[in-house]
Design brief:
Length: 464
């Protein structure tokens, strides 16, 4: 009879016991996923997977400073554990002093759930969603449209232990739904996406009804040239732009003059007003429905993330407060180097505009403009201005006298999210949204729609 599989906390404890390094951090990630896929109004595949990844960070103190070595492996057995620890120690001894070296975090009480089994997902997460999806298939079929898409639910239980006594645990559920409706001849397409923790707040029937309206809008086609248009950006598009802005908000890079947040002549733009609207961009690990890890989990060092910060508590942070830049992302090392406040990155992003108008109400208040569905293939052109380029996708609609009057061609855009915030004239109601472009990496976002009077559609896109 084979020995029982060790529990995650036991693996962490055993790796720490095996360590001969001056310092050690062990991260065990227990992951399970469940998914559904469908095409042409019928389910095609479903499945459940499970896995474990173990990361060992070894630190070695030397005369010139502290070096670190990081090794991650999947499906590590008890017999392979020592070789993993030794590999991390060898990597540390073979490396030069780590620039970001700091004392490992201490003084955090052990999480009471550290020794509990990992949380898991299963096909049961779709118990209510799957029948509702079947009903949506039937309505779509009767309405002459086809539904394509997928639903994915992931649960990751992270166990973090250190040689300084930290024993922390975080369970992170992540659910995404993407739904495409197409006309039978495939000439019209509409998309909707949702982010969820448990699929209890997702209604596929309501999404199908929304997509049916959009397919109806697309029955009239209007070709427009490239140019600057008053544009309503829905929450998903705003999220994609501001997530990229957040990823570009390194405090160190700004101090060194390499980003849009660098002040000409030296220093940063902290304190500068970026928008005339009363916008606040913030992150909060305890935001309802968007909960994320309340402590740093760093599997590697880079940018303003440091393995030495593992276990550091992360408080709610305002990045922009009432329109003014308030914080940039820093590790302990970057904060000490630059003199900026310590502000680790967090796992969610929220933009509050202080208004309660829905996107539909914003459409009704538009004399002539464009309504986007989502953005696609977003890429950076110029880090100094954070100029981004990308494509519109799955529906760009013409609004005239407060009503959608047809679908227009897709465009390539060239815009900086920082400039957009400065030019936006209206922000709507903040709501949870799924960023389409970055949904594989970042799903926990809440954004309002934004009205931009002169969004730059730099060229017509015929291929999307």
């Amino acid at each position: 009879m084979s020995a029982p599989t060790p529990k995650p906390h036991e693996i962490v404890e055993r790796a720490l016991e095996l360590s001969r390094a001056d310092g050690c951090v062990v991260i065990a990630d227990e992951e399970s996923t469940a998914n559904l896929r469908w095409a042409g109004n019928a389910l095609t595949t479903n499945g459940v997977t499970r896995g474990r990844t173990l990361t060992v960070v070894a630190t070695v103190d030397g005369r010139e400073g502290t070096a670190s070595g990081v090794v991650s492996r999947s499906a590590v057995t008890v017999d392979e554990l020592e070789s993993l620890v030794r590999a991390a120690e060898a990597a540390a001894r073979g490396a030069g002093p780590a620039e970001d070296a700091q004392p490992l975090i201490t003084g955090v009480p052990q999480a009471p759930e550290f020794t509990e089994p990992p949380a898991e997902t299963s096909s049961a997460v779709f118990a209510d969603f799957a029948p509702a999806l079947g009903e949506a298939f039937a309505r779509a079929r009767a309405g002459g449209r086809e539904l394509y898409g997928f639903a994915n639910h992931e649960m990751v239980s992270t166990y973090l232990g250190t040689s300084t006594g930290l024993r922390l645990r975080h369970d992170q559920p992540t659910g995404t739904l993407e739904l495409n409706a197409k006309s039978p001849d495939r000439t019209r397409s509409a998309w909707a996406g949702r982010s969820t923790r448990d699929f209890k707040d997702v209604d596929p029937g309501a999404l199908d009804a929304e997509l049916a309206v959009r397919l109806g809008w697309a029955e009239r086609r209007v070709d427009l040239p490239a140019g600057r248009y008053e544009t309503l950006l829905p929450p998903t598009a705003v999220a994609d732009l501001l997530i990229y802005q957040m990823w570009s908000a390194s405090g160190r890079d700004a101090v060194e003059g390499r980003t849009v947040f660098s002040r000409p002549g030296g220093g940063t733009r902290l304190g500068e007003r970026l928008t005339g609207l009363p916008l606040t961009l913030r992150s909060d690990p305890h935001a309802p429905g968007l909960e994320s890890a309340p402590f740093v989990v760093a599997h590697s060092s880079g940018g303003d993330q440091s393995v030495f910060d593992n276990g550091l508590p992360v408080p709610a942070t305002e990045w922009i407060a009432d329109g003014a830049l308030k914080n940039l992302v820093t590790s302990r090392f970057a904060a000490a180097l630059t003199g900026l406040p310590l502000a680790p990155s967090l796992g969610n992003l929220i933009l509050d505009g202080g208004e309660d108008r829905s996107l539909e109400e914003m459409v009704a208040g538009t004399e002539r403009g464009l309504l986007l569905t989502c953005l696609w293939y977003v890429r950076e052109v110029d880090p100094a201005t954070l100029l981004l380029t990308g494509l519109t996708r799955d529906g760009v609609y013409l609004v005239e006298d407060g009503e959608v009057t047809g679908e227009v061609n897709n465009f390539r855009f060239n815009e900086s999210p920082v400039d957009l915030l400065g030019r936006a004239t209206e922000a709507g109601r903040t709501e949870k949204t799924l960023p389409r472009e970055w949904s594989d990496w970042f799903t926990r976002a809440a954004m309002p729609a934004l009205r931009v009077p002169d969004f730059n559609m730099s060229s017509v896109s015929r291929g999307v």
